[in-house]
Write a structure and sequence with these properties.
The protein is an alpha/beta fold. It is about 35% helix and about 25% strand. The protein folds into three domains: about 5-175, Carbamate kinase; about 265-335, VC0802-like, CATH 3.30.2130; about 340-400, VC0802-like. It has helices at about 15-30, 45-55, 65-85, 120-125, 155-165, 195-205, 215-220, 275-285, 315-325, 355-365, 390-400; strands spanning about 5-10, 35-40, 90-95, 100-105, 115, 130-135, 135-140, 145, 170-175, 195, 225-230, 240, 255-260, 260-270, 295, 300-310, 335, 340-345, 370-375, 380-385. The chain has an eight-stranded mixed beta sheet, sandwiched between helices. The chain has a four-stranded mixed beta sheet with strand order 5-4-7-8. Strand 7 (about 135-140) and strand 8 (about 145) form a beta hairpin. The longest helix is centred in the first third of the chain and has 25 residues, at about 65-85. The relative contact order is 0.10. The structure holds adenosine-5'-diphosphate, aspartic acid and magnesium ion. Adenosine-5'-diphosphate binds near residues 12, 184 and 210.
């Protein structure tokens, strides 16, 4: 008998029929003799709709109230799924993040899990029940309800799998696994049967939203065996695991893209020690993650600095940057929301020179201008115009014969 955490994303519980199909699958797993802890997302576009409603009602939407609102979405799914399980003779009990013992910090709308005290889940399992946990939420050290950032139900699932010492964490979604590119953009993208934690981390960090970044960090840090599968076909999916010799040794494994960031530029920055440190310290103090950074060669003692931040943090990042720009005697600070990022990911890139050249040549042939570049040992990312992103993904997918 194994303990399996099964997570079902928004499309997987998108309507009554989908919830019935998920209940059937859990019932099948339980009848096979395994124990299941289910984690659910909000139905379909519920979270988007709640955010829209908040924007219609308020300009400020305080984080605490935003979280109270958004956690309602997952509550609906968990209760409905338990009802569908009851019809199938499967005893189940729903738990909010707080009831499941998910303790987070106080950073509303993007809280981090600090601890998990899953006593109630263990009690439910012992009583022969399937605990159904609302994903994406927890309770803060100040006892307020929090959410974990978009896509956070993946993180709930993997963190619970680690805390419960589950044998497996299955992420059920609307595609049959992790592909060589987003199958919605590249229809002939290929399913990857096994991918290493390192490659999956880079993929998740650079826009491949099939798994939330923090869920992959948890899986790697706690060695949680992770599978990404379809809740439509139930076929075997992608295994995310430690690198081993049975994996494809591709030079480039996948192409990802991301249109959720914006670029901030400060012009005329005095080229002397300490200025960049001040700018980025102030931004960090506002809990904004800066991603790519470029600084130009200085001309006449001043330089330009550009960096990217998540669109949702843009107004905070821009206002602090404008404040600091005037304090340090720089020119202006302005934002550009029309950017996107395309990335190549592959563990084999470390030992293969020339990948960058092929990437740039491919973009040049497609008439796509590169605005910023950043690299890690196993990733190369380029910032381009947002309208060029999907073409760039398709051209690169073809050029690298994925
Ligand atoms: P869920 O609601 O189940 O969490 P998401 O929408 O968050 O689902 O993630 C699944 C989506 O991720 C897919 O529908 C697909 O469009 C997108 N995606 C992006 N990159 C990839 C990739 N490399 N492989 C598979 N899916 C990807
Ligand atoms: N419902 C949340 C979202 O849409 C969390 C999730 O689906 O993982 O982001
Ligand atoms: Mg998701």
């Amino acid at each position: 008998m194994a303990l399996i955490v099964q997570k079902f994303g928004g499309t997987s519980v998108g309507d009554a029929d989908r919830i019935q199909a998920v209940a059937d699958h859990i019932a099948r797993t339980v009848r096979k003799g395994d124990q299941v802890v289910a984690v659910v997302s909000a139905m379909g576009k519920t979270t988007d709709n709640l955010i829209r409603l908040a924007n219609d009602v308020s300009k400020t939407h305080p984080g605490r109230e935003m979280d109270m609102l958004l956690t309602a979405g997952e509550r609906i799914s968990m209760a409905l799924l338990c009802m569908a399980l009851a019809d199938r003779g499967v005893a189940a009990a729903s738990f909010t993040g707080s009831q499941a013992g998910i303790i987070t910090d106080t950073d509303h709308t993007k809280a981090k899990i600090l601890d998990i005290r899953p006593d109630r889940l263990f009690e439910a399992l012992e009583a022969g029940k399937v605990p159904v946990v609302a994903g994406f939420q927890g309770v803060s050290t100040e006892r307020d309800v929090t959410t974990l950032g978009r896509g956070g139900s993946d993180t709930t699932a993997v963190a619970l799998a680690a805390a419960l010492k589950a044998q497996l964490c299955e992420i059920y979604t609307d595609v049959p696994g992790v592909f060589t590119a987003d199958p919605r953009v590249v229809p002939n993208a290929r399913k990857i049967s096994k991918i290493s934690f390192e490659e999956m981390l880079e993929l998740a960090a650079s826009g491949g939203r099939v798994l939330a970044l923090r869920s992959v960090e948890f899986a790697r840090n706690f060695s949680v065996p992770l599978q990404v599968r379809s809740s439509f076909t139930w076929e075997p999916g992608t295994s995310v695991q430690e690198e081993d010799e049975t994996m494809e040794q591709a030079v480039v494994s996948a192409i990802s893209h991301d249109t959720s960031e914006a670029k901030v530029t400060i012009t005329g920055v005095p080229d002397k020690p300490g200025i960049a440190a001040r700018v980025f310290r102030e931004i960090a103090n506002r809990n904004v993650n800066v991603d790519m950074i470029v600084q130009n060669v200085s001309h006449g003692g001043t330089t330009d600095i550009s960096f990217t931040v998540p669109q949702i943090d843009l107004s905070a990042a821009l206002s602090v940057t404008q404040e600091i720009a005037s304090e340090v005697g720089a020119g202006t600070a302005y934002a550009d929301s029309g950017i996107g990022r395309v990335s190549l990911i592959g563990a084999g890139m470390k030992s293969h020179p020339g990948i960058t050249a092929t990437m740039f040549e491919t973009m040049a042939k497609g008439g796509i201008n590169i605005e910023m570049i950043s690299t890690s040992a196993i990733r190369i990312s380029c910032v381009v115009r947002q309208e060029d992103v999907e073409d760039a993904v398709r051209l690169l997918h073809e050029a690298f014969e994925l």
